[in-house]
């Protein structure tokens, strides 16, 4: 057994106060995102954990890349026939979370996921390198395969098939837009008295702001 009880650090890099935050969470997310990016030390600032409730009834989390965010919500792309794609189709209630240790920050987003329009998915797919496009075509994501070489051989065949040709987006591949219902910002503070500010979406398109006990 590995005893991790002595793993401790003091969080002292910033603070989160009601007097300095905007009225909506997207503006604060944008501020934090660029502060984390400018501070350095995080390889992929847009890496986030997507949690879903699977068809087997169990929650499952995995890291994907955020590709766009706006007042409408947060967009990522995936194979709709994958395990997470099927889970979201069956139950669109999802959770996104970001952990930025360089600034001692977390953001947790509860929301409803829906497929983006075909135009949005097409435009993003067209912007990808050919290798990434073929990777989306060749992989039956989450399905059992016999070996790594099986996958690599399929890719070689597709590279020959599409040489000099346009690679179109598969119908089973595209974006999900997560519309936030609740967004929590966590800022590490000394003595474990962390700052937690929660934005809760109200029916009149405004946000209720609460401070949560750490």
Observed structural traits:
214 residues, 9-stranded antiparallel beta sheet, alpha+beta
Helix count from the secondary structure assignment: 5
Q: Compute the gyration radius: what is it?
A: 20 Å
Give the oligomeric state of the chains in this entry, treating copies of one chain as homo and distinct chains as hetero.
Answer: single chain
Biggest sheet, open or closed, and with what strands and sense?
Answer: 9 strands, antiparallel
- First-to-last CA distance: 29 Å
In percent, how much strand structure appears in the residues? 25-35%
What structural class is derived from the secondary structure elements? alpha+beta
Order of helices and strands: HEEEEHEEHHHEEE
Number of strands: 9
Descriptive account of the structure:
This protein is of the alpha+beta class and 214 residues long. The protein is built from five helices and nine strands. Strands 1, 2, 3, 4, 5, 6, 7, 8 and 9 form a nine-stranded antiparallel beta sheet that branches. A hairpin with a 5-residue loop joins strand 1 and strand 2. The longest helix is centred in the N-terminal third of the chain and has 15 residues, at 25-39. The protein is globular.
């Amino acid at each position: 057994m590995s005893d991790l009880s002595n793993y401790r650090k003091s969080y002292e890099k910033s603070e989160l106060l009601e007097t300095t935050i905007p009225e909506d969470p997207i503006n604060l997310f944008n501020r934090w995102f660029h502060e984390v990016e400018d501070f350095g030390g995080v390889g992929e600032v847009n890496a986030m954990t997507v949690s879903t409730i699977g068809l087997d009834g169990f929650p499952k989390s995995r890291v994907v890349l955020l590709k766009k965010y706006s007042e409408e919500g947060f967009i990522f792309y995936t194979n709709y026939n994958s395990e997470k794609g099927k889970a979201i189709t069956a139950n669109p209630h999802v959770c996104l979370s970001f952990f930025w240790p360089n600034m001692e920050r977390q953001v947790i987003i509860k929301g409803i996921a829906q497929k983006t329009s075909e135009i949005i998915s097409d435009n993003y797919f067209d912007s990808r390198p050919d290798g990434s496009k073929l990777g989306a075509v060749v992989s039956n994501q989450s399905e059992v395969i016999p070996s790594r070489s099986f996958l690599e051989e399929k890719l070689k065949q597709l590279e020959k098939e599409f040489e000099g040709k346009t690679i179109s987006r598969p119908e089973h591949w595209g974006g999900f837009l997560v519309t936030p219902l609740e967004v929590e910002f966590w800022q590490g503070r000394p003595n474990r008295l962390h700052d937690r500010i929660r934005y809760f979406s109200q029916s009149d398109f405004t946000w209720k702001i609460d401070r949560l006990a750490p």
